[in-house]
Amino acid sequence: MTSALESSSFGDSGALVTGEFAFSAANFREIADIAKAEAGIDLPQSKATLVYSRLAKRLRARGIATFSEYCETVRADADERGSMIAALTTNVTRFFRESHHFEHLRTEIIEPLAEQARRGNRVRLWSAACSTGQEPYSMALTVLSVIPNAASLDVRILATDLNPHVVAHGKKGQYQKEELRDVPPDMRAKWFDPVPGDSRRETLQIADEVRSIVSFRELNLMGKWPFSGPFDAIFCRNVVIYFDRDTQSMIWNRLARLLRDDGALYIGHSERMSGPAASLLSSDGITSYRRKGGKAS
After folding, report:
1. Could you read off the pLDDT of 185-199 as tens digits, one per residue?
2. Alpha-carbon span 93 to 220, nearest angstrom
3. Among residues 29, 81, 161, 290, which one is catalytic?
4. Which residue range is the domain that position 26 belongs to?
5. Which of 102, 170, 243, 268 has a CA-to-CA distance to 94 between 20 and 30 Å?
6. 161 in active site
7. Helices assigned H by DSSP within 12-110
8. pLDDT at residue 14, rounded to an integer
């Protein structure tokens, strides 16, 4: 992946992108440096127009006149740094996205663990970039399709994201009807209810029983992880595409080491496994990997 610190042919003060706000090469480099330090995001200069369009909205929202002033604000204000990172990342998600992963989760992970779970053994799953909650709730619905009483057992799903706004959305568990188009009809009928007071019945609330097995938390993958696993399965999809190669390898390695033997790691369709994790994992389908070791007993 290209370095975020490519040199500019425009000079530090010349306009890198023309528009409502002056946006110089120096402004871009400062934003790229902050994004890399704060969240590991690698921004090549080819993304300058995208960065401008995403962050111009923040300048308008804050009543800031220039990108130079915005950079000063971001340096001083942790909340705005978070808003900047959220603006620069894309939260594209849907229920049962890349459905083969959920089929693998059901048949290769949950079904073999079901009897152990009924005997009281722990089952732990992690959605490492949960966005607005569709991924971890799809995981939960998959679990419940195999273990209907999972909420009364030691079965839990951790859902994390660095963006507090999408975490709050996930906790709320409310979705528009069209967002549920990929949820199987039987699951939709069983686990979603109209939100009280919505006369048009366009907004649906996911059932408390589903929400009870999912815990949403804010987490920056570049920081400390306040848990030690092991996890039976981890979803980390369409996240490391924002990182440079070395950071990708580091993240894969940290994730792989949190899996139990034979646990599963699911990654995005455009992502590739690299670094030390490649020696810990074996391919087990399309962008699906298993931690090498003995079969779970």
Report:
1. 999 999 999 998 776
2. 19
3. 161
4. 15-88
5. 243
6. yes
7. 25-39, 48-62, 67-76, 78-88, 99-104
8. 62
